[in-house]
Amino acid sequence: MAQVTVGNKPIAVQPIMYSTIPEECAIINCDASWRIETLTAGLGWIVEDKQSDLCTEGQAQSEFVASPLMAEALALREALITVRHGSPNVWIRSDNLELIRAINSKVFPMELYGVLKDIESLSSSLDFILFHMFCVLVMFEQTPWLKMLIFKPT
Prior knowledge:
Blueprint: E1 2-6, E2 9-13, E3 26-35, E4 40-49, E5 54-62, H1 68-83, E6 89-94, H2 97-105, H3 113-123, E7 128-133, H4 136-142, H5 144-150
Parallel strand pairs: 3-6, 6-7
Antiparallel strand pairs: 1-2, 3-4, 4-5
Helix pairs in contact: 1-3, 4-5
């Protein structure tokens, strides 16, 4: 079992083995930043489409965002909107465990209810979708420009 440190708190992470992930699955890495002073969020995502062998990236800024959790949910929704007409098989990776747990459990916090219902609706047209927590350090190691993109000063 691997261990990840969040802040100063170690968290045990069980490696996940999925033998049924389609080979032609599009992999989406998404993340967000949030500024409490301005209630703005920077959203970023990368889509690796194995079927077409393309890698696309996206970014957006959102205003009046209430929390970091909402910013993460908005980034995930924007990434799904980007791929809704592409691959029918999607693997979404986020570094926010609370968000992934809410989506997978179908128990939506009131704060996120509308955005998570949008995500659920966008997901319903896909043949395969997997929501997975992915360590942001690994994500930034693989794509260092994403960190600069979403954490740029406004």
